[in-house]
Amino acid sequence: PEARALALLDQAQDRVLVAQYNIRNERFFDKLDELRQRGVTVRIVVDAKNAVKEWNTLDDRFEQAGFDITRYENTSSAYAIMHHKFTVIDDALVMTGSYNWNLTAQVTNDENMVVVRDPKLVAAYAHEFAELLGEAPHTPGLAVGQGGRVYFSPEDDVQDVIEDAIAGASTRVLVSVFTFRDDAIARALRDAANRGVEVWLITERKQADNTSADEIVAEAPTARVVVAANRSAAFSAMHHKFAVVDDTVITGACNWTYTAFRHSNEDVLLLNDPALVRAYEQAVRTTWASP
């Protein structure tokens, strides 16, 4: 994803809007600086609560270099954050997913990034960026493109979007989510399995000890539940936040938790491209088969 993201950034001609929870990979600093020097407008938003951590210093470097950078503080709750990982390039495409711009995400984590060129979906992300900067009103309501839909928390009911998709599943629900703490969605998965839908759940062990949601899913005898542990490095993780529901991929930055759904700034993207469905299904099966 690093190579792909840098290559897409290199194509920018007009403007780049970066909303990243944190940026700790200096290759992205170098690329954005290169774009700025050749006249591309570069605007950056990072999470203020994360930016003050002692290991996060690249935001200071961006500021010292004269970049247009905003440290956005989500004050709706003590644990609320600006958790986006999306970038809009020339109002022509957006890249999003679980992938943070840091080396742990690149080298050791299980991550995904998707590139979307649908004009209506791209425009929705650009509007979300403007909302973060206070340049546009917070506007609830989904954006519908030719190949999918996008919702943003906290203004949209993203929990209901996910729960309704699972409740309407007829063949399969394959889930790979870093933090899964929502009992209502857990019950929806359990009920789907009990009515004959193929249900797989992978979640990260580092997070699972703080919730019983995975145990609720496992109450269904046919549900397949794995509490995975990415042990590639001290801080590595199975960091995905996606699901395959029948022929739809649900992805974005959003963990399946109350704070993510009701307070944090997140995106939930539903896509219906058959090639993407196959790719995300394969990601679940590859993680499942890992030692």
What would your notes on this structure say?
An 8-stranded mixed β-sheet has the order 7-8-14-13-12-9-10-11, with helices on both faces. The chain has a 6-stranded mixed β-sheet with strand order 3-2-1-4-5-6, with helices on both faces. The longest helix has 16 residues, at 274-289. The protein has 12 helices and 14 strands. Helix 7 packs parallel to helix 8. The protein is α/β, with parallel strands linked by helices and 291 residues long. Helix content is 36%, strand content 25%.
- Large-scale geometry: globular
Distance between the termini: 23 Å
How helical, in percent, are the residues? 25-40%
Number of strands: 14
Notable traits:
291 residues; 6-stranded mixed beta sheet; 36% helix; globular
Summarize this entry quickly.
This protein has twelve helices and 14 strands.
